[in-house]
Design a protein that fits this description.
By secondary structure, the protein is an all-alpha fold. Helices cover about 70% and strands about 0% of the residues.
Length: about 300
């Protein structure tokens, strides 16, 4: 009888802090023995092992019993979860920015303009580091929470007037992140002559036509503005009339540029003599591509206008 009880108490103690094991084990042993003694109808009756097992089973799993005697502090307290999620999301955004820079450095080092490689390296960098970020933030919250240092940050100052309007619409983080990635890759693509060595640059199949070189600067200014605006949106939670208006204006500018380029001489030409057979194909792609782009962006813009009217 004693062996089965001692095995149970030993297992419970295994999940207890060392400083509390002896005291809790003694209390638990006394409680169990009182319950076992109560099963005997007379002093000489021997309680069977089956009855003892039932008593121990009713006590509960050793892990649960240990938790009831000495509750463990959670990694993240429930009252700290909103702050934890906020810090985690901000950490993910910083990690995303680092991943984009890493992908940009990769293209420069490899002397490549492969868009799929850019996305693959950015995704790989993000996945490789997100685990470390989560572990570090969780560990910091656990230590600060146990020390009671998080209470002052749980409820930041606010006023009812600062609450978002009933019609407020959240900004999609994934859309803004995609805009950032597109902007960085677009600038790298536009300025290949600056970071690509001469031999690799001359081997590219297509490039901007010499008489359209001014468009490199025009497009760079537009893409740079879109990139800055996307970075700003990543710091915001809800759309405002102003931010949505700027976003709509961006799309209108891109539509105007595409219509202009559709009616202008070819912006992109085949620059590699060995690929002259691709000239008709590339010409057709860009002749129809500008109009397809205008159609797609117009649909998106109409959707944004409808959202703007609801704000």
């Amino acid at each position: 009888m004693t062996d089965l009880v001692e095995r149970y108490i030993q297992e419970v103690a295994r999940y207890l802090p060392k400083t509390q094991q002896h005291e809790i084990a003694r209390e638990l042993r006394a409680n169990i023995m009182d319950e076992i003694d109560a099963l005997a109808t007379h002093p000489d009756e021997v309680v069977s092992e089956h009855q003892i097992s039932e008593v121990l089973y009713r006590q509960g799993h050793p892990k649960q019993v240990a938790q009831s005697f000495a509750p463990q502090y959670p990694l993240i307290a429930s009252e700290d979860m909103p702050l934890y999620k906020t810090v985690l999301s901000k950490g993910a955004l910083f990690l995303f920015a680092y991943a984009i820079l890493t992908a940009g450095r990769y293209l420069v080092s490899e002397q490549s303009v492969n868009g799929f490689a850019f996305l693959w390296v950015a995704l790989g960098s993000f996945i490789d580091n997100i685990g470390i970020v989560v572990i570090v933030i969780t560990a910091v919250f656990y230590l600060l929470g146990r020390g009671g240092y998080l209470a002052q940050w749980r409820s930041p100052s606010w006023s009812p007037a600062s609450l978002p309007a009933v019609t407020a619409q959240p900004i999609s983080t994934s859309d803004s992140a995609s805009d950032v990635a597109t902007g960085v890759f677009g600038l790298l693509l536009l300025w290949t002559p600056l970071w690509m060595n001469e031999e690799t640059y001359q081997s590219l199949v297509i490039g901007i036509a010499p008489d359209m070189e001014q468009w490199r600067w025009i497009l760079s200014c537009i893409v740079a503005f879109s990139l800055i605006a996307a970075l700003y949106r990543l710091t915001q939670t809800y759309w405002t009339k102003r931010s949505m208006s700027v976003y709509i204006a961006e799309y209108l500018v891109y539509i105007a540029v595409m219509l202009t380029l559709w009616q202008s001489p070819a912006l992109v030409i085949v620059t590699n003599p060995q690929a002259e057979g691709l000239i008709p194909i590339i010409t057709q792609i860009f002749n129809h591509g500008w109009l397809v782009g205008v159609f797609i962006l117009s649909i998106i813009t109409l959707g944004l206008v409808r959202q703007w009217r609801k704000l």
